[in-house]
Each structure stands twice: as C-alpha cells, then as structure tokens.
Amino acid sequence: MSRRWWEGATLYQVYVRSWLDADGDGSGDLAGVRRRLDHLVDLGVDAVWLSPTMPSPDTDWGYDVSDYYGVHPALGTATELSGLVADAGERGLRVLLDLVPNHTSDRHPWFLDACRGRDAARRDWYVWADPAPRGGPPNNWLDATGAPAWTLDEKSGQYYLHNFLPSQPDLNWWNPEVREEFARVLRHWFDRGVAGFRIDVAHALYHDRNLRDDPPSDVGPGSRFGLAPVHSMNQPEAHQVYREWRKLAEDYDPPRLLLGETWVLDVERMAAFYGQDDELQLAFNFPFLFAPLDAGALSGVVGDTVAALGDGSCPVWAGSNHDVSRFPTRWAGGDAERARLALVLLCTLPGATVLYQGDELGLTDVPVDPGAQRDRMSRAPAGQFTRDWARTPMPWTTAPHAGFCPDTVEPWLPLGDRRGSSVAEEEADDRSVLWLTRRLAGLRRRAFGGTVGGYEALSLDGACWVYRSGPLVVAANLGDGDAVTDVPVADGVVALSSRRDGRTGPAWAPGRDLVLGPWEAVVIETKR
Ligand code: NOJ
Q: How far is residue 105's CA from residue 123's CA, in Å, rounded to a whole number?
C-alpha cells in the first residue's frame, strides 16, 4: 500500500449533526456515525472527514472550539470517538477530524484568560488593537457577516479581531506559543489513530502585522463585502506552519493527511499550499467548485489546476460541502441527469475526490424557513439560500423522520421532501444515484488506487469534453442536444454511462464514434 494513501482516494464528509441521531435528541452524534459505517464501506469510501467533534458552545456549530483536546458532549465521549476510529479501522476506513486553528470560541479558557487584562498570560494569543485615532475599530476589516471584524473589550478599551463571528476571536499566529500549542494538538490526535485533519480556513491564519486596511474589490466571489481580504488574512507566513505540520505528519506511519480548506479563488494560489511537496498534501479547489457546469469552464479550470500542480501533487475535486449549495442544486438546478453527469466528473478526474453526505443520493438543497434556521452566519429571508439548506439530515428510510431520528422528536433541521431519495429507496433501485456512486467508487479503486493518474484533455468541442484520466477516458456532453464525438483510443470498454437509462453505454467500440445523449457522460476503461 502506497504511503500516499490519499492519491486516487474517495473521501467523504460526514456532517455529524445531520448523519444519524443514536441517542434520540433530534441531533446526529458519534454513536450514529459508528452505527452507519457500513454505508460508507458499501459505497467504497477510503476515508471519512468528520465535521467538528471538539467541545464548542456551537455559535458556529463546532467551528468555535472551546477545547482542542476533547470531544463535544452533545456528540459523544472520547471513548466513543476512539471506538469509532477503531471500528472504522477494522473496515479499512480512515478517519480525519476537523481542525480549527484560525480562531477559538470566546468561551475558550485561553480567551477568557486573555480578557483578564493587558497583562494576562494569554493576552497575546489573540489579536488586540487600540481604537483608531478618531475612535472606532482599528481599521476597515470586515467579518464574515459584513460587520466590522473588531469587537470592543470594554474592560481594557482595546478591540479584538474576529474574521468570523464576534464569538470566534482570531488567534495570533505571530505568537510562537500558539504554534507550539497547535503542534501539540496535532500530535494528540495523531497519536490516537486519527488519519489527518481537514484544516478550517487554512489560508487565513495570519493577519497583517501592521493592520493595514483591506483594499476595495469588485463584488464577486473573491470579494468580502466589497473588500479584498489581503491583509485581514491570506498572509504568506501560513506556509511555514504547514511545512512544520507536514514534517510532523510524515513522522507517523502511515503519514497523516493535511487537507486544507484553502478558500482562494485562483488555482495558482491554491497550488501554493502544496509548497514543494512539503506543505499540505491536499488543498480544496474552490475555483473548480465555483465554476459553472459548462464544458469550457470546467475543462479550463481542470487544465489550469493540473498545470499549476505539476506532476507530484494530488488535485482534490469536490462539488458540495456544508457551506455551499449542494451541487445537484447549484450545478444541476435539480435536474437528475445533470447531477449524475457532475458526479461522474467528480469521480473520474485524477486525484482525490471528496463527496459530501447526500451527494451519493443526488440530494438537493432543502429550503429552511427563517423560523427554523440554525446558522447565525448566513441568516436569510424565506426562499434565499443559507448554509442550513445544505446541512439538513440524511434521509435513511421512508419513515416520517427518515430514520434520522425517532419520529417522536423534532430533528434539529427539517428534512424537507425526500420522497424517492432515501438510502433505503435508492438501495432498492439499481439505477439510482446511490448505485452509480458505488460503481464509480469501485472504478476509482481499479483505475487509480494509490496513484494520481495523469490528465490529458483530448478534445473540447462545444458542449462536448473528452479527457483521459489515468486509464480512463471520459466523454461528457454538457449540453441539451445529442452529441457525436470521436474517442481517440485503440482499446477499451465502456465501464458506465451517467444516464439513468444507460442507453449509450454498450454501443461503442474502438474506432467508432460515440453518440452521447443530452447531459450524458460515458466512461471508457482502457488497458493503459
Ligand atoms: C469554514 C467552515 O467550513 C465554516 O462552516 C465556518 O463557519 C468557517 N470556516 C469559520 O470557522
């Protein structure tokens, strides 16, 4: 088995609170994850990333940590988590935890100490600044809600920085003690068999030491409420931290994995987080996630990604997570054939893929009315996306609460109308998205297992994109009409078609054109 076990792997994000409620309180927990590990095994997953498991007051559902060495009592105990890691290990599944190094909870003992006064031992673990000369926040930085990123601490007369909510004070990564503490946190979990970390806002850690204003920026995905966050976060010093963590991760056997939530919107900057193969082994590709489901746009970003990463690095492809609209909604507008095609792309591009729970069912977003919303960071009027829409519970069965929690308790977020898309229903239908995902995961193991697999664009003709990925050749028609394409390979067999009716699949043979239906992707397995 390759030491770089993540190459070609299928990773899977479990949003613990919405996976399975084992203790009957309406909210998912670690015992629930443990109970349904076989769903992941049957799917063909190699590793599971658990959304935050550490104690937290939950103003941002675990992304406001109050103890980096513990387990959130609402999710379970340390024993439950180690049991989960052991059960997963027995099934050949690795477990990654979510690490939140940019900020803590304002209830964390470190911050409580820092608030004791300017001379407190941990004062400098956070970012404090005097008011601007004319009063008010020290500079123009904005937080994730668009409000000033500074909150006044009345007692000391200074402001503290929070790039997210006021309850999430930013740590001061310029302080070497913070770095030392996090090295301890990493070792603590690695020593307990945790296979690695997904690193929250991995691009953010450092802020400009001189607290210079962020410059204005056009409204768009790179802009934070009209500002480019080039000083409030995104400082190059984060790279030193990842070099240090990489060494630490490589001291373990097998090496532990660092998967960064690198929310940057150009592939060059994303690629920089891999360093010279001495920083993160995997960095999420947001330029890909935010590209439209369009042949030109996607083939462009895939080609740029592969070029920016070079041969040694492993790309990561994801279409959904707990912060964005699910891809069957965002990319496919709820159209089942488009979603199936997108899944084929996600699972056949070279490198690692990260599925989000429900992707394997083709789940779309579930609208959550304002009265039922639980996310403080993205509250929205009725009919407008908030992150809650992507966080609703997994539908396991056709029971009123979908087998997620007892029918006698209210689930923490509504289930919405899940008719037809529960695990039980899709299990019984071998043309479902669930079965398509299983076939794709099996194909990935055969084709890539333990390698990155090379990428080569073979053709791009209007809506039709044909590429080679390791031993696979994929022809995808991202258009509403039929398409005919040449597949320039001398051998190969059709492994699958994305379409529910699978109609084109068997008709192709080497040397013949391939006829693709609307929104159909066909995967050909060659001997190479
Ligand atoms: C990214 C996480 O995915 C998101 O859910 C969270 O709100 C922010 N980071 C802040 O930790």
A: 15
